[in-house]
């Protein structure tokens, strides 16, 4: 049975298909399993809302949009995210990973927002519509980078330069590089964020062996859902008691459960559709700027796929599977451009961390969570209720989940020789520069000066600022370059290549077929290499 094993892999044990033919299975055991799976899926859905709400909240107002526009963009983002997740888990890498919006696209999107041709539009609604169409056009063109590099297997060929030593800092920085969304964001409302952090640590670690109904580890499986519910109610009580009535606008925005006006402005029913904002517009500068975010999201997703495979007890995705996943991620970015989500696609790092926290790596759970994303994006009011959770609650979760993903990256070092000074040098330098260089670029990101690089070519500024503001991308550049140029032939064993090389090809390990084979016997038409 799925959730009775000490560690669960979506590939070793899957929920029987028949369980989901009917919502009410005939026997009680299947009924319990189905309810448990649905709750786990809902937990994934709740977790993905943090970043999904943060992106429209930060961008839509700058574009000239209203709270109603913000709610529509959020609905569209979740709707497309559900579709992308289903495509990725069915035909992409097939790992239990949620695909959502990416913060890496914020810099090029801000460059488009501040374009002088758009800023001179005086009517806010008209400026919002024209800006959205410009973003859509840039996403549509930039998605071709992922599609070409993925389906041509070029990204897979490039991944052959990766080793456990080179990927350890990259995967580590996928989690650790997001530290700004952890305690700094939690500190915006300490009275909510700190109890959340203490509660999630207590339930998921100290009480994880407590088994209440049917000898089931409820706190280990549903610690995130339980903690969010408890602290959300606590936050609502604080708000209702008038604790924030005379506080600053910033405190109210971070602590109140109704400040974002998402519930009041969200429609009861809205079905997102392609080109709902109008026909996309295309500008060369916008497209080049957006391509930098596509490259960054490819690096971040590659690291997230490596982490997800390790937490789901699967073999590292072979080059062919990795390319296939990047290709489908490009299709997802194309959908982002067609529907208008304000951002592109990447793997949700927090949901990858949830695989390790709950010890549940079920592909089926993630697919059902994609169904929740689609359902509640259509039923706007119901989805908006969950989207009103204060962000410091998510920030507390990020402290745990991002840290967990970071430690998974460092665990790749066990396959290397860390008594080698060469390996210590590469690991230390790539981790340090992967954190310090993006932080240096972030310090120069102020309203008057958008980034450290400031030339007359705005698209070039956005391109470099995007690349060097991404910790995993900087870590990849440093680690992979050094790992493939410093004493390469003498250090094959020290780099961990004897363990890694067998996973480069689909046929290199017998378990790959079980983990990554396409459904519906599609491998006959798309044979792996």
Measured on Cα atoms, how large is the radius of gyration? 22 Å
Instruction: Going across the biggest sheet, name each strand in turn.
Output: 1-2
Bulk shape: globular
Specify the structural class: mainly alpha
Spans where pLDDT lies below 50 across 5 or more residues? 1-28
Number of helices: 24
The overall strand count is: 2
Order of helices and strands: HHEHHHHHHHHHHHHHEHHHHHHHHH
The overall pLDDT average reads 86
The proportion of residues forming helix, as a percent range, comes to 55-70%
Major sheet size, sense and barrel closure: 2 strands, antiparallel
Question: What portion of the residues fall into strands of 2 or more residues?
Answer: under 5%
């Amino acid at each position: 049975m799925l959730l009775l094993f000490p560690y669960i892999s979506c590939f070793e044990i899957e929920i029987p298909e028949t369980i989901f033919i009917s919502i009410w299975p005939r026997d009680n055991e299947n009924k319990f399993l189905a309810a448990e799976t649905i709750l786990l899926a809902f937990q994934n859905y709740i977790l993905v809302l943090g970043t999904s709400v943060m992106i429209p909240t930060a961008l839509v107002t700058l574009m000239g949009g209203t709270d109603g526009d913000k709610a529509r963009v959020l609905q569209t983002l979740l709707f497309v995210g559900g579709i992308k997740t289903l495509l990725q888990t069915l035909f992409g890498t097939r790992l239990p990973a949620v695909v959502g919006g990416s913060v890496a696209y914020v810099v090029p999107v801000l460059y488009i927002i501040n374009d002088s041709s758009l800023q001179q539009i005086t009517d806010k609604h008209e400026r919002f519509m024209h800006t959205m169409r410009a973003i859509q056009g840039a996403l549509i063109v930039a998605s071709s980078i992922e599609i070409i590099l993925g389906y041509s297997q070029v990204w897979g060929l490039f991944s052959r330069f990766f080793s456990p030593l080179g990927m350890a800092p990259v995967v580590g920085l996928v989690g650790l590089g997001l530290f700004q969304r952890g305690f700094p964001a939690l500190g915006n409302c300490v009275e909510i964020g700190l109890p959340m952090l203490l509660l999630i640590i207590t339930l998921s670690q100290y009480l994880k062996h407590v088994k209440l109904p049917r000898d089931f580890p409820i706190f280990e499986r549903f610690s995130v859902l339980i903690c969010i519910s408890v602290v959300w109610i606590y936050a609502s009580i604080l708000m209702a008691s008038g604790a924030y009535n005379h506080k600053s606008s910033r405190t109210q925005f971070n602590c109140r459960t109704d400040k974002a006006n998402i519930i009041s402005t969200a429609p009861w029913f809205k079905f997102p559709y392609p080109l709902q904002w109008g026909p996309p517009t295309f500008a060369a500068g916008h497209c080049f700027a957006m391509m930098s975010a596509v490259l960054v999201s490819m690096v971040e997703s590659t690291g997230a796929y490596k982490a997800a495979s390790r937490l789901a007890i699967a073999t590292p995705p072979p080059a062919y599977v990795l390319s296939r996943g990047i290709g489908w991620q490009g299709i997802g970015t194309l959908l982002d451009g067609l529907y208008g989500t304000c951002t592109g696609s990447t793997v949700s790092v927090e949901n990858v961390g949830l695989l390790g926290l709950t010890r549940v790596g079920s592909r089926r759970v993630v697919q059902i969570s994609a169904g929740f994303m689609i359902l509640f994006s259509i039923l706007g009011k119901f989805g908006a209720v969950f989207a009103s959770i204060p962000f410091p609650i998510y920030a507390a979760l990020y402290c745990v989940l991002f840290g967990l993903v970071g430690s998974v990256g460092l665990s790749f070092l066990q396959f290397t020789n860390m008594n080698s000074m060469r390996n210590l040098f590469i690991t230390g330098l790539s981790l340090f520069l992967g954190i310090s260089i993006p932080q240096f670029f972030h310090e120069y990101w102020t309203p008057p000066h958008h980034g450290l690089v400031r030339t007359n070519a705005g698209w070039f500024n956005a391109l470099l600022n995007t690349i060097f503001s991404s910790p995993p991308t900087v870590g990849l550049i440093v680690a992979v370059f050094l790992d493939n140029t410093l004493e390469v032939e003498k250090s094959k064993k020290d780099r961990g290549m004897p363990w890694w090389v067998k996973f480069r090809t689909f046929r290199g390990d017998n378990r790959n077929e079980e983990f990554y084979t396409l459904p519906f016997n599609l491998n006959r038409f798309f044979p792996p290499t």
